[in-house]
Amino acid sequence: MPLPSSVCKSWTQASTSVGFPSSLCFERGQRSGIAAPQPPGVWRLAFGVWQWSNGHCLYVRGIGWLNRLSSHEFRTLVNLARAKPPRYTLQEHIVEECILSENLSEILRPKVHHAVRELVAAAGIDVSDWAHDRNGVAIKNPNENIYRSFKWSFGGMGEPVALCVWHEEIDWAVTPPALTGNTKDQQDDLNALANKAVSTEVRSRFGIKIRRTRDFQNALYEAYSKRQPVRIILLVGKRTDIDDAATESSKVRFRELDAVPWYVHAFDPYTGAYRVIRGIEQPPAISADPFADLKDPGLEAAFQSFVEELGVTEREAIIKARVGQGPFRDALIARWKGCSVTGCSALDLLIASHIKPWSQCTTPAERLGAANGLLLTPNLDKLFDRGFITFDKQFRIRLSPKLKLGVALELKVDANMRLKSGADKDILPFLEWHAQNIFVA
Question: 162 with 231: CB under 8 angstroms?
């Protein structure tokens, strides 16, 4: 008697995902009616009689928790199935389900060192531009394109998304496995180290890591917003601690592409917290994300490639001009209606300025949200950027002791100024950041 097509389909999909022949079938989950709790990392295997050409048979009937099945026994079964695909003899009266407990972490631990480009291509991403370096010079072996190979995220903008993830970062103890993290915390840590660095070379190294983290976040956010699957490139090797990132780089020993797609189930645009789960599609959104459909001009690939070649000062100036347009500026105009301090309504003359600079922002909410912005006249914008003025918790202006009184008078700035009615408590954390990190006290 043939099995129902729906069952065969689920068996085939699950077995293919871990590299088994389609006749060796795995399904996730706990069988109804089994009272015992399901151990972490358990797979449910459904089969009847397996007969190999050498006459050996594996025969299972009944339902039970085989938690003591050794890794060696499990591998033997796997290798036999791969090396000598069995002739599957189905006899309805003996087809049962049993539980095989095996550490999925070990099954998916990379054991081959594939080139990054090959895995990115396998994820369905166009790799034609890997044939040239950043200057357009042809590369003999595209797999050796170092600039692209060292990125942490790939694709997006209409293509599939692929992320490089350390095997040890994944929580393999839960079923299904999950990747949780916080891109804001990671960027904050890197920014703090970069700001303390004395050497230009060290600051540059941190800058590269910050941009890679930001790209990783942007790829996650895009997959989350568009409900797209994520392909995970698993890595094992020597992972460098963030405190040593100034002088050391992580070294990958093996890398492989997980055959099963992952899905971003949570991404908080305010906190940077995320959760990615293997094999289970993202559930319907509970609440609308105000930033999901907004494009950040500062994150466009061509623009990022251009500014990477610039010095710090020039890069900051160009980024400020670039991101001061588009949705961020529109949000500030809607909030302030005019200059945040003077009330000047000549919008064409006003500058959309981040309170916490764009380069230091670590979430979509910080980069695009009106809470992290002021609309200022050019003189106030320049003073604010240079740290000669800031605003306290009551939204009153503070003048730096380094700002000469004569200069302040010439620029029409005085101690009685304050932010207008657009100011609200959501702006306070950013004003505090500016006072601590930019303001010249």
Answer: yes
Per-residue pLDDT, averaged over 417-425, amounts to 87
Beta-carbon contacts of residue 284 (< 8 Å; ≥ 6 apart): none
Alpha carbon distance 42, 325 (integer Å): 52
Give the DSSP letter string of 394-435: TSBEEE-TTS-HHHHHHTT--TT-B--TT--GGGHHHHHHHH
Map tokens 């800058």 to a residue. Answer: 207
Residue 163 to residue 112: CA distance in whole angstroms: 18
Reduced to 3 states (helix: H, G, I; strand: E, B; else coil), residue 21 is: coil
Structure tokens at 31: 């069988």
Q: Which amino acid is at 52?
A: W
Residues 6+ apart with CB under 8 A from 17: 26, 259, 260, 279
Rg (CA), the chain: 28
Crossing angle, helix 183-196 and helix 200-225, to 10 degrees? 170
Q: Note the pLDDT tens digit of each residue in 172-193.
A: 988 889 999 998 888 888 888 8
Could you tell me if 85 and 25 are in contact, meaning their C-beta atoms sit under 8 angstroms apart?
Answer: no
pLDDT of residue 197: 84
CB 256 within 8 A of CB 111: yes
Which residue did the predictor score with more confidence, 329 or 26? 329
Q: In angstroms, rounded to a whole number, what is the distance separating the alpha carbons of residues 380 and 343?
A: 12
Q: Which two tokens stand for residue 78?
A: 């796997």
Cα–Cα nearest to 115, from 172, 154, 79: 154
Q: Which long-range contacts (CB under 8 A, 24 or more apart) does 48-56 make?
A: 48/88, 48/89, 48/90, 48/91, 48/94, 48/95, 48/96, 49/88, 49/89, 49/90, 49/91, 49/94, 50/81, 50/86, 50/88, 51/86, 51/87, 51/89, 52/80, 52/84, 52/86, 53/84, 53/87, 54/84
Separation CA 151–CA 154 (nearest Å): 7
Across-strand partners of 155?
161
**Phi, psi of 267, rounded to the nearest 5 degrees:** -150, 115
| 87 CA to centre of own chain | 44
Element (H, E) at 49: strand 49-51
Q: Which of 85-99, 123-137, 201-215 is the least confident region?
A: 85-99
pLDDT band with cut points at 50, 70 and 90 for residue 283: confident
Is the overall model pTM greater than 0.90, yes or no? no
Cα distances from 250 to residues 50, 115, 244, in angstroms, run 44, 16, 10
